[in-house]
Amino acid sequence: MLHPQVEASLAIRRRPSAEALAADPYELLLFARQAMEESNEAECGPAVPLPVVADVDADGVPCRLYAARTGAPVLVYVHGGGWCYGSVETVDRLCRRIADRSGCAVLSVDYRLAPEHVFPAGLEDVETVLGWVRKEGAGLGVDPSRLAIGGDSAGAQLATVAARRQRDAATPLDYQVLIYPAIDPMTASESYDEVGGYGLDRAAMRLAWETFVPDPAQRFSPDVAPLAVADLAGMPPTLLLTAEYDVLRDEGADYADALLTAGVSVVHVRYAGVNHGFVRKLALFDAARVAADQIAAGLRAALTF
Which CATH superfamily is domain 4-303 in? Predict the structure, then answer.
């Protein structure tokens, strides 16, 4: 059953007018970016204070570091937004709560966005940050020898592709957190037909994929479509969260199954009654606070050894 908090959440963000919908697609994208930033305070609520909240330059990639103590393990976090919008600001409250509840440091990545910077720019930024934190982490007061990656939606796609590439480079990560990951450029799963009316639909996801990866031939490479990877063995232990009323629900479940089949330790939790994007909206969803604390508990168990 759809939770009433979904309807309330959909009323928060400013929606484009009919004139805007008929305008240039890039202008519509700029509208969506601004609307997401404008609604951030109402959706995400007050900031949890932490001893360390600092904007840093990770070899040219802007990031924000959150830490509650020195010597903490690190989660590199990659925000969602269809590879086209979102920022460290739109996941600031979520990252603060995870850092506070887990005891881990969180390094949030402000990667380059499409269409100004198409694939593989965002992935390159995430990999740059991983290399930087391994190299500079001790000087930042964190422990880069215990390193996880995570993200939501498009950010989860970038996160898990980066995790697979780290595996292939013989520098595996210790854990990954994937929140309703965008996995399938075909947008072929049944959930697109079943639950496409709750803030995200097939047309929007197709546009996001096409904007992020304009070359159709690249959309089915392993660096874009995680299920195109021949062998997922050796991927990090995974916490994967999906939402019942989310078009990405089924592809997330398919990826969890593929990881399990490859022998990867996976915890897949489907949150009932909620829609895409709920986890960062701590002020609107009871389930968001539960999910953030579940992520924190998973990180604590995986990294505080």
Answer: Alpha/Beta hydrolase fold, catalytic domain (3.40.50.1820)
What pLDDT score does 305 carry? 59
**Is 246 among the catalytic positions?**
yes
Closest by Cα among 141, 151, 64, 50 to 100: 50
Q: Is 268 designated active site?
A: no
Q: Is the pTM of this model over 0.85?
A: yes
How does pLDDT run across 85-129, given as a tens digit for each residue?
999 999 999 999 999 999 999 999 999 999 999 999 999 999 999
Q: Pick the catalytic residue: 92, 100, 125, 246?
A: 246
pLDDT > 70? residue 277: yes
Please tell me which residue in 153, 174, 189, 191 is annotated as part of the active site.
Answer: 153
Q: What is the mean pLDDT of residues 28-41?
A: 92
